[in-house]
Design brief:
The chain has 305 residues and is α+β, with helices and mostly antiparallel strands. The protein contains eleven helices and four strands.
Length: 305
């Protein structure tokens, strides 16, 4: 009988404050969708880091005849055969180096034509203007500075470049976007909590005579609070379910179908369904507990009736 009464009161409360209940559902859904989206974005960035950092190289570019005429780093002239052997030997001795590959001027020219063949500059370049280089794969991509310190400014070396620096700029942008989403999420959560608190208080005020009578006849505080707390929890759970639906639909249409980014952007290793599904229980638990706790603290003063 008590359970039936509590359930009936939940239904009455939700219908009585239908507009505010709808606002709670929408705000909870949007805030938790952003919450889940930010978690998935973090997973995506970490996945991309693991994928791309494993492929990045440190490039030691060697001076050619053209550089000797125009680049201060190559003021002593183009690199000699002995300098090449010495640099290669020193690279192989470094404990941070996993693999080293030599790229000739012809190979560099071929790769440039493959990547930038449509560029107006490509038509004016010749193989002898390209730079020879050593492509170094590190055991730990974070150890770039060890190579840079050893070879930057050395005779015959034009520059030392780390591809990881380019990726860091990209990941910095993605992380910035992620933090912006989290800021909006936090704002939406505050709005949702304020709506929950106001909805519960309005509901409690409209039924203050009923709760006063229940208090006079000896009903416990929890028994009086339960319908209001569960109203908020049910509204939040509905919003959490909608948020989960948003994430599933977004993953399906953006990555797998619709936009089909997984097919169009083959170079990006996208997160799988397992990453999405593991976030759904957390979102549902948050959608249930957050409104319930907000309602509990909002109702404390109404137990004094």
């Amino acid at each position: 009988m008590r359970a039936q009464f509590v359930l009936s009161e939940i239904g009455v409360g939700l219908r009585r404050n239908l507009t505010m209940t709808f606002a709670v559902v929408v705000s909870v859904a949007l805030s938790l969708a952003l919450f889940g989206g930010s978690l998935l974005m973090s997973d995506q960035v970490n996945t991309m880091k693991g994928y791309w950092y494993d492929k990045v190289n440190v490039s030691v570019f060697l001076c050619n005849k053209s550089d000797a005429e125009s680049d201060p780093n190559c003021a002593k002239g183009a690199i000699t055969a002995d300098q090449k052997k010495e640099i290669l030997s020193d690279i192989k001795k470094m404990s941070v180096v996993e693999k080293v590959t030599y790229e000739t001027q012809d190979q560099a020219y071929k790769h440039y034509k493959e990547q930038f063949g449509d560029s107006p500059l490509a038509a004016s370049l010749t193989p002898d203007q390209m730079q020879e280089s050593y492509r170094i794969k590190l055991k730990d991509p974070e150890k770039y500075q060890v190579v840079a310190t050893a070879f930057d400014g050395r005779d015959g070396v034009q520059s030392v470049q780390d591809q990881k620096g380019i990726l860091d700029n990209l990941f910095g942008l993605l992380n910035g976007m992620n933090w912006a989403a989290r800021a909006v999420m936090a704002l939406m959560l505050v709005v949702a909590l304020m709506l929950i608190v106001n909805t519960v208080r309005v509901s409690a005020f409209s039924r203050r005579r009923e709760t006063g009578i229940m208090r006079l006849v000896g009903a416990s505080g929890f028994y009086i609070q339960a319908p209001f707390i569960m109203e908020a929890a049910v509204a939040g759970l509905i919003g959490g379910t909608v948020a989960c639906g948003f994430l599933v639909v977004a993953r399906y249409f953006i990555i797998d179908h619709g936009l089909a980014l997984s097919e169009k952007l083959n170079l990006i290793n996208f997160i799988g369904w397992d990453a999405v599904l593991t976030k759904l229980p957390l979102i549902l638990a948050t959608s249930l507990l957050m409104p319930a706790l907000a309602a509990f603290f909002a109702l404390r003063k109404y137990l004094k009736v």
